[in-house]
Amino acid sequence: MDCFTRPLAFLKSDADLAPTLITWFLALVCVFMFVKSRGCNHRVTDDWRPYKDADECDRAERKKEERRRPFRRNVRIFLIRHGESEANLLPGQIGGRQNESPLSKKGLQQAMKLGNRLKAMGIKFEKVYSSTAVRAFETARIALPGVNVEKNEELLEQGQGDWEMGDRKKIMTEEILAQMNSDNWEFKAPQTDRTVSESPREVEERMYRFVKRRILAPVIRRRARPSNDSRDEDEFSEYEFENERKQHVEEQKGESSPPSHAMRQKEADLPCVAIFTHGGAIRYLTRRVLASNPFRTHRNMIENTSISEIVYSTAPGGRGGWFLHRFNDAAHLEYEKW
Predict the structure, then answer these.
(1) What are residue 25's phi and psi, to 5 degrees?
(2) 164-193 mean pLDDT
(3) Which DSSP category does 123 fall into?
């Protein structure tokens, strides 16, 4: 018992030491709680502080996604970057869109290897989309011969305005880099009436808008509606969505099987959609669906003809929503068998 009584006797013998020990103990508890709170919430980091708007946007989108989820469908989306283009051979030049730049000789070989990879994977795409840029459409045509490819301008690369085809060293001065680093989510190049300039935020918004309209296929858009009604799901009022929900529930009554959106499908059984697009477009779309930190988005490298796969699940709660299954997968460029 001496090992237990001695510390108590020591504290009783020195009345001034006990308050000091209690103070130090409380201070350590406070430090521990502070460190734990920072570790649990990554958005308190200094990198995130300039992006309060991005944080608010992601929170609002998350709430909206949860409300819309029952009206969407399970789907696998393959985001594929184009093969090497002639413009890619000029690294000292700011690329941007350059929609007329064709594939290089190496880019043609990459597209064929990509086709062999997709064939070996045994994926059957129900729909294939491509940006209107020549290099993206050529990649899709070579990789998936005989498949109908639908072009769409919403899948284009980030517009760099007056900087396109400009000298990178001359344009990227220390002052410009400081402006970009201060808030690269909103920063965009100068433009005129003849050029198109976009911020990363604008690129991810148009890419995400395309995915919602063309791929997630909410139930409310599949119903009979006037042909001139081309609204996006975000433009429907809560009243309209509530009516749709009630109607959908009534349709499911009396059926022996559960609603299609509630069924747990195996990944291999999910419908697959391919999007042939560009590095920046893939980078910003994945940031949007994962709600990651915009400060680090530019560090995500996208190789030519690489495959990134995002999956949408309609399962309730944390089991549903967006998932990243693969990112920048270019294994077909590294192995001779492809």
Answers:
(1) -65, -45
(2) 87
(3) -
Rounded to a whole number of angstroms, the distance between the first and last alpha carbons of the chain is: 74
The tokens describing 278, both together, are 């560009």
Query: Does residue 333 sit in helix, strand or coil?
Result: helix
pLDDT mean over 19-40: 70
Q: Which two tokens stand for residue 297?
A: 């988005």
Q: Are 165 and 128 in contact (CB under 8 A)?
A: no
Q: Are 218 and 71 in contact (CB under 8 A)?
A: yes
Under a CB-based contact definition with an 8 Å cutoff, are residues 73 and 220 in contact? no
Q: For the sheet containing 75-81, what is the strand order?
A: 150-151, 125-130, 272-277, 75-81, 307-313, 321-329
Q: Determine phi and psi for 201, rounding to 5 degrees.
A: -65, -45
- Among the listed residues 53, 63, 46, 106, the one whose alpha carbon sits nearest the alpha carbon of residue 82: 106
Write out the two tokens for 275: 């999007």
DSSP code at position 206: H
What kind and span of H or E run contains 273?
strand 272-277
Residue range 319-337: average pLDDT? 90
Instruction: Please give the backbone phi and psi of residue 322, each rounded to the nearest 5 degrees, phi first.
Output: -90, 140
CB atoms under 10 Å from CB of 27, counted, come to: 10
Is residue 318 very low, low, confident or very high in pLDDT (cuts 50, 70, 90)? confident
* pLDDT tens, position by position, 49-60: 455 677 788 888
Q: Phi first, then psi: give them for residue 130, nearest 5 degrees.
A: -145, 150
- Categorize the per-residue pLDDT at 246 as very low, low, confident or very high, splitting at 50, 70 and 90: low
* Closest C-alpha to 327, from 292, 304, 301: 301
Please state, in angstroms and as integers, the Cα–Cα distance from residue 87 to each residue in 73, 91, 304, following that order: 38, 8, 12
- Provide the β-strand partners of residue 309: 78, 326
| CA distances for 283 relative to 61, 77, 127, 227, 295, angstroms | 18, 14, 21, 34, 12
